[in-house]
Design goal:
The protein has 90 residues and is α+β, with helices and mostly antiparallel strands. 43% of the residues lie in helices and 30% in strands.
């Protein structure tokens, strides 16, 4: 399922227009992005938690040349599914 499919399905189930649903979905995504960019967690009870994690620096190899390169420390987004979501997927 992609974003358009999600918008279409929610519009059908809610009776809202696709344009209104798209506005809500885009607003949700912007708020989650902003919160993660600020270092905050976003917890959706029964669904999961969006958060950021530190990835430590490490050595790697350039696959074309085989040269050793240093990969710097970075912050990456992560998602941890709730128990309810995990059970629903089983």
């Amino acid at each position: 399922m992609n974003k358009n499919d999600l918008i279409h399905n929610i519009a059908q189930k809610s009776g809202m227009t696709k344009k209104d649903v798209e506005t809500v979905v885009n607003g949700f995504l912007e708020e989650v992005t902003h919160a993660l960019g600020s270092g905050e967690k976003v917890q959706l009870i029964g669904f999961g938690t969006f958060e950021t994690r530190k990835r430590s620096g490490r050595s790697g190899r350039n696959p074309q040349t085989g040269a050793v390169i240093e990969i710097p420390e970075s912050t990456v987004p992560a998602f941890k599914a709730s128990t309810r979501l995990k059970e629903a997927v089983k």
